[in-house]
Amino acid sequence: MSNYDVVVIGAGPGGYIAAIRASQLGFKVACIDAWKNKEGKASLGGTCLNVGCIPSKALLQSSENFAQLQHDFADHGITAEGVKLDVAKMLSRKDKIVDKLTGGIGFLFKKNKIDSLHGVGRLVKRENDLWQVEVKDGEKVDVVSATRVIIATGSSPRQIPGAEVDNVNILDNEGALSLAAVPAKLGVIGAGVIGLEMGSVWNRLGSQVTILEAAPAFLGAADEAVAKEATKLFTKQGLSINTGVKINSVNSTETGVTVAYVDSKGNEVTAAFDKLIVAVGRVPNTNGLGAEVVGLQLNDRGQVEINDHWETNLPNVYAIGDVVRGPMLAHKAMDEGVALAEQLAGQKPHLDFNTIPWVIYTNPEIAWVGKTEQQLKADGVEYKVGKSVFGANGRALGLGMADGFVKVLACAKTDRVLGVHLIGPFASEMIAEAVMAMEFRAASEDIARIVHAHPSLSEVFHEAALSVDKRALHA
Questions:
Q1: Global confidence as pTM
Q2: Three-class SS state of 182
Q3: Where does the Pyridine nucleotide-disulphide oxidoreductase dimerisation domain lie (predicted)?
């Protein structure tokens, strides 16, 4: 039986990063993962690299290029005839990117002398201060021992009763990334990140997309001003967004899917789609982990219970990422993996959950960090607001991407930045400056005094910071 200092169960963003950092710190590490690609080969990287963050961004870029060629390039004096869409080639490009990055993790494991064990990992028992962990790959079963175990098993798509995913007509994120042809009519249940991004992809490629959201408000987690702007822009692009919807039934046939629902006004509606994407959130992967055998404590949401140091109720068993509390974000899991590995090595890492950025890769992109205006009002915090639009920015106008704005929220008493909210071009990149500012406890005045390159999109952030104290220069 092989013995390790650290065994990580799961090779998604949290797991593989935890394994690498632990190895860098001198631990003998193994990482267990059961993911297989469509060829049936082991593929590291979890949902994010295989059927999540990475392939979705590849398709978003492909679809955006297609839409720009059709609708936007004419403004630049560029016209084209006979434009054709090759879905198979688009998917092949996406798959090549996935293969390159998942293979890259395998290379990093070899470089850092991490043993990659393919199979389902399960806690068996603790014996002589060592955890016995089963690795099951089909009929093959091995057992390894570990001083410490890190659970990083991630999450899976939440299912809707009566709308079981078959990835033929009713799709989850994996099926939505692999459609062989553009459906004429596409339904999406759920207006979260996955629903909006996948809806955007196929809308740009020609689908008539209808989004059905149970919540009464669109993008309720985002700042209200951003949500309002997003609703306007996405509707203009052709997305039909319906909130306050109650799904009554979903019926899949050989020819498509029929959804019966009640709209926000109480009207009964029946809609027919060629394909239906179900994107109503995700649930933690704890089935098969052996929790009931070893007494691992789970909460009522199925998450592994941990304290502020990622410790479970079991000695030397830890958990990170989607399988524990907090936002189900790859970058949150990755930083937890680093922090936990360093903690195991006796270091004092720091991770501020208040400065974790959120991004939605639509067009325009949406990103935010910190508190929303509605949260500050609910908390009774006195605040100031600064806002600047991309429509007055030379770089944005030159790019032909002048929709949206940057909004800065600062404490009325101390001027400390409490939240930054963006909807606009490359918001996913621009949010990093806001995260750094908040990590360094910057005031809006600090940002206003920093020289920003001209012409650049970052000037809009600068202008919003100036606007906090009503001294904007270009508004």
A1: 0.96
A2: coil
A3: 356-465
Q: How confident is the model at residue 240 (pLDDT cuts 50, 70, 90)?
A: very high
What is the Cβ-side half-sphere exposure of residue 226, based on CA atoms within 13 angstroms?
29
User: In this structure, what DSSP letter does residue 69 have?
Assistant: I
Token reading at 399: 């790019």
Sheet strand arrangement including 405-411: 358-360, 365-370, 417-424, 405-411, 383-389
B/e letters for 392-422, b = 16+ CB within 10 Å, e = fewer, are bbebbeeeebbbbbbbbbbbeeebbbbbbbb
pLDDT in tens, 115-157: 999 999 999 999 999 999 999 999 999 999 999 999 999 999 9
Rounded distance between C-alpha atoms, residue 22 and residue 115, angstroms: 12
How many Å apart are CA 14 and CA 328, to the nearest integer?
11
Looking at the chain, how many residues does it have? Answer: 475
Domains of the chain, CATH where assigned: 3-157+283-351 (3.50.50.60), 170-280 (3.50.50.60), 355-467 (3.30.390.30)
Helix (H, G, I), strand (E, B) or coil at 397: helix
First to last CA, the chain: 69
Give me the active site residues, please. Answer: 454
CA distance 210 to 185: 8
Q: Are 400 and 205 a contacting pair, CB within 8 Å?
A: no
